Amino acid sequence: HDIPDILKTIHAEVRERFGQHAGKVADYIPALAQASPDAFGMAVVTLDGDVHTVGEAHAPFSIQSISKVHTLTLALDKAGDDLWKRVGREPSGDPFNSLIQLEHENGIPRNPFINAGAIVVADVILSHYDDPEAALLAFLRERSGNPDIGRDDEIWESERKSGYRNVALANFIRSFDNIENDVQAVLDFYYFQCALKMNCIDLARSLQFLACRGKCPSSGEQVTSIERARRINAVMMTCGTYDAAGEFAFHVGLPAKSGVGGGIVAVVPHVMNLCVWSPGLDQKGNSLLGGYALHRFTRMTGLSVF
Ligand code: GLN
Prior knowledge:
Pfam families: Glutaminase
Oligomer: single chain
Subunit structure: Homotetramer.
Largest sheet: 5 strands, antiparallel
Number of helices: 13
Radius of gyration: 18 Å
Number of strands: 10
InterPro entries: Beta-lactam/transpept-like, Glutaminase
Shape: globular
Binding site for substrate: 65, 115, 159, 166, 190, 242, 260
Family: Belongs to the glutaminase family.
Bound molecules: glutamine
């Protein structure tokens, strides 16, 4: 495949099809609303390390829920399969910030990629790492090869101030004894992971181990076990784009994880990683242009796990 040419075609297509200001930039976190609605960037990183980009692939953006893949990896590394006693792996079919299932399911979130599940994963990380923020940063910097990755202070502050739903989720889960640490400390770590800034290339690189049987393709380091990499991919496929995961499987056919900052990463096992960024979201909180771009990419290349 001529990847550079395909990326160029996709870039032109999204402009033509959606015009300006497509989708709606998330504004329930006030600082996120400042993102440029017309930004679009895409990066492909092959297992050989070749990088192809189009648009604003070098611009850092708020990774938001994409960080849930990295924290799940870290938590599984420490807690092993016991983690699955505290969080499920079934798609929720409800919005990412929904409280509804927790009441009937004893405070066990459906999966680690909705907010409730990620808050439990954050709690597990707090129980196992002396300095959880440093551990997550070190992991992201090493996996992406970018030592400059850091927190966007404004977004972090903004989430802390406006995180009413997350406060409710964490306290509700705590009432079922499925949070062990101080609730505010868990939330602060959760806001930290959401407020990290990375660009499309960093993000695609950071999950290369998921395309390569748990191994970093350049250093050969085993980041997570083969079996765990397979399972993280499975959860991304079924739950990574919340209540649109069925649509994503149908139209894209790759394990993927989105965030309300407008980023989506996808894994083509044994072949490559992709990341697309465009802040305008659809009604389910996934990047509108990002979803379309991934759909076109898999159509044009024939790449799919199916
Ligand atoms: N920080 C966001 C929140 O907690 C993350 C949600 C997302 O990216 N889907 O609401």
